[in-house]
Structures are given as structure tokens and as C-alpha cells.
Amino acid sequence: MRPRSLDEVVGQRKLLRPGSPLRQLASDSTGSAVSLILWGPPGTGKTTIAQAIAHSSGRRFVELSAVTAGIKDVRTVMERALNDRDLYDIATVLFLDEIHRFTKAQQDALLPGVENGWVTLVAATTENPSFSVISPLLSRSLLLTLEPLTDDDLRELLTRAVADPRGLRGAVELSPEALDALVQLASGDARRALTALEAAAASAMTPVDLPEIDDDADGEPDDDAESPAGDADTDAPGSLPKITFEIVEASVDRALLRYDRNGDQHYDVVSAFIKSMRGSDPDAAIHYLARMLEAGEDPRFIARRLMVHAAEDVGMADPQALPIAVAAAEATQMIGLPEARIPLAEATIYIATAPKSGAVIAAIDSAIADVKAGRFGLVPKHLRDAHYPGAKRLGHGKGYLYPHNDPRGVSTQQYLPDELKDRVYYSPTTHGNERDVSERLEKIRRITRGS
């Protein structure tokens, strides 16, 4: 069902509009068009578009996969492309699938051919090119972002596949409910949609062997006995096997989540998980937690993120958030999945609904910034260690006021170095527990700093 031209491509209407770079590349057989990097999720048409461009423009099409190709393969293609251009005036389109898997050295090998116009590179990647493609190659290419197919796109694709001679040739009937189920399962992925359709069609067209019914106890089957499935649509004379919702449900166990633990989807889902907790939306946070768990994410990774988030975004607004996250991590380590989903969910909901404060991370980051900038000074003498021999002779510990001897439990004395004596790192918010901390700290600072 792979389209033979750009006109047959389903979806990506913005990229395929008249006059777009893709259209220009498909209509240009001179090799003067710019190289492209196609970035998008699986099943959105990257390979299809590359092949359609090559076939439409009449150029020689060479396909390499970064999974199996090496520098030697790239150089061989470049040499052949240069010879074809100079000797036979034939332009070459090099389609490189999964370019993000190429090392920097392998990507460097592409530069001469791209820069000198020996090939028109069309590279496909599911990873963010800003992180996975070297800058010189990225700057010499046009980056086009492909979007997941819409539900209408998928319906068009599936309907075409049922009738097309290259597909099911009209050998089955697809019920509206089954079509909707396939669209939902595909989640914007054309390849997944076609795979699910193929599996469902195979189930619908497989004959079911049913025992003949003997209702007169003579041991011989009755000639007029009806099959238990005699009323099914597929048994009617001349009718087609029908793909129903039940067949789709039985053929396709569940939607395979588009989630690569080393790819963009990993970082996007984790980011959404953390931001949902930070934004105090427990429903969204639980949704993303479920997506990570169902995709096979390591539950220990999730537990670590919960601990970090509890300290970073809840902090002193609710000091219990961190112990609960730690407890969830320990429980996860001890009991494993599937039971670990429960303490992970409990910690997620607790953190999402807890009052939020970034005062703790702001305090430590501000202090680290001062230290890195050289703003730290000497430890005041009265705070220095006075226990080793000779320390008192140096004045260490002299003048130190023991807070427990003060009826207030706090003494007026300087703790920061002279250069930073008035510095304030921790500024509590008025959220949750920090409201009380803020009031108490204000009183404490008035005493310790004598203000």
C-alpha cells in the first residue's frame, strides 16, 4: 500500500501543498534541490515521501539504513553519485533512514556529497534533529516536521487498503465500529493501522471448523442440522467476511504505545508527567504515569523522578512529599510490578495535590552560583573547629554563642562569611507549610542578624 507518488500520500497536507519544497523536489530532475531532513513519529510517511520524490523526479534512488550502513557504504554511494552526475547527467537521491543512529563520524562522511551537490539527501529520523544530527549537516538541509496522521487520514487510508488491488482487493467488509477501533488503535501511525487491519482481515477470513450437531443420539450427523454460526453475516450466500469490532479486539491485543525509552517520546512523556505534577493536575499526572508503565518504562526511573520532583517542586511547602516519594521508591524496589504501580500512583497523586514551592531549589542553586563565582570568603573564626590542638591559640571558636543557652533557642551572631553576611538564599513562599516557616524564619533572622 505504499504510495507511488506524492498525490497518493495520505496526510501531511501542509508539507505537500502546491509549491512546497517537497513538491519542488519531486518535480526537479536536475539535482539542484535542497537536501531534506524529515522528522516525525513512526508511521507518518517519511520513507514513503522519500521514495515518492525519487520516483516522481526520475532520479536514481539509493536507500541506506543507519542501522546497517557504515562510512564505507556512504562513501561508495557518494562516489557512484558523483560519477553518474559527471558522466551521465543522472542525479541521485540518497534516502538515509534513522539518521539519528549515525555517529558524528558517519554523519561527517555525508557532508562532501551534500555540500557539493553530488546527492540530494533525504534523511528520516524519529529523534529531535537538534540533538541527533550534527550542526553542519543540519544547516545544509531543510528540516520538515511530519505530524501524526489525523483520524480522517487513517480512515481514508484503511478504506483504501480494503478496496485497493494492492491491499485486500475488496475481499472483506469493514464495519464502521471496526474502522473506528482500528483508527483509535493506530494513534496516528499509518503502519500500525495497516498492520492491525491485516491481522483483523486474516482472522475474519479464517474459516472456523464447527462440529456437526447430532440431536437424535444415533451417532450420525443430521443432514439438516444448522451450524451454530448459521446466522452470521459471513455465512450468507455471496457475502464477504466481515471485520467486526469483536474481531479487531481479538486480533489486536492492545494499542502499542509509541514510546521509545531512548527517544523523543520518552522525554516528552516524562516531561509531561513532571509538569502535570508541578501544575497540580493529578489526573494528567496519572495518565502519563500509566503511559510510562504500559510502555515498559523502568519503574525505578519513575520512582527517582518522583523523589526529585518532591524535593524540587514541593519542597518545604509539604515536607512529607519527599518521604512519601522515597517510600514509594523503596516499595517499588521491594515488590516490583505490577503491584508497584499502586505506591507509584499514590506518590504521584500526593505530590500533584501538595502545595508547591520552588524555594528550596532556588536557595541551593543561588548558593552554588555564588560559590562558583568565587563569592564565599572565610568561615568566621567563632564558627571554626576548635577541637584540634592549637585551634584555640588561633582563635578558633572564640566568641561562639551556644544557641541552647539562650532562652529563645536562637542567638544573635553571624554565620555567613563577611562577604556574604547579609545574603538571603532561602525565601519561603506562603504556600502550605512554608507559610508557617516564613513567619518563623522572619523572627529568627531578626534575632540572628540583629535586625
Spans where pLDDT lies below 50 across 5 or more residues: 209-217, 221-235
- Continuous helix count: 18
Question: What share of the residues does DSSP label as strand, in percent?
Answer: 5-15%
C-alpha Rg (nearest Å):
33 Å
CATH class of the largest domain: Alpha Beta
The CATH homologous superfamily of the largest domain is called P-loop containing nucleotide triphosphate hydrolases
- What name is given to the CATH topology of the largest domain? Rossmann fold
What's the CATH architecture of the largest domain?
3-Layer(aba) Sandwich
Helix/strand/pairing class, anyone?
alpha/beta
Question: In terms of topology, how is this protein built?
Answer:
Layout: H1 21-27, E1 35-39, H2 46-57, E2 60-65, H3 71-88, E3 92-97, H4 104-108, H5 111-115, E4 120-125, H6 129-132, H7 135-139, E5 141-145, H8 151-163, E6 173-174, H9 176-186, H10 190-205, E7 242-243, H11 245-251, H12 264-278, H13 282-294, H14 299-314, H15 321-335, H16 341-353, H17 359-372, H18 433-448
Parallel strand pairs: 1-4, 1-5, 2-3, 3-4, 6-7
Defining traits:
single chain; 451 residues; alpha/beta; Rossmann fold; Helicase, Ruva Protein, domain 3; Zinc Finger, Delta Prime, domain 3; two-stranded parallel sheet; 7% strand
Provide structural commentary.
The structure is a single chain. By secondary structure, the protein is of the alpha/beta class. It has 4 domains: 6-145, P-loop containing nucleotide triphosphate hydrolases (Rossmann fold, 3-Layer(aba) Sandwich), CATH 3.40.50; 149-206 and 235-256, Helicase, Ruva Protein, domain 3, CATH 1.10.8; 264-353, Zinc Finger, Delta Prime, domain 3 (Up-down Bundle), CATH 1.20.272.10; 370-448, post-AAA+ oligomerization domain-like (Orthogonal Bundle). Helices cover 45% and strands 7% of the residues. It is built from 18 helices and 7 strands. It has helices at 21-27, 46-57, 71-88, 104-108, 111-115, 129-132, 135-139, 151-163, 176-186, 190-205, 245-251, 264-278, 282-294, 299-314, 321-335, 341-353, 359-372, 433-448; strands at residues 35-39, 60-65, 92-97, 120-125, 141-145, 173-174, 242-243. The strands form 2 sheets. Strands 2-3-4-1-5 form a 5-stranded parallel sheet, sandwiched between helices. α3 links the parallel β2 and β3 (92-97). α9 packs parallel to α11 (245-251), α10 (190-205) packs across α11 and α12 packs parallel to α14 (299-314). The longest helix is centred in the N-terminal third of the chain and has 18 residues, at 71-88. It is elongated. The model is unreliable at 209-217 and 221-235 (pLDDT under 50).
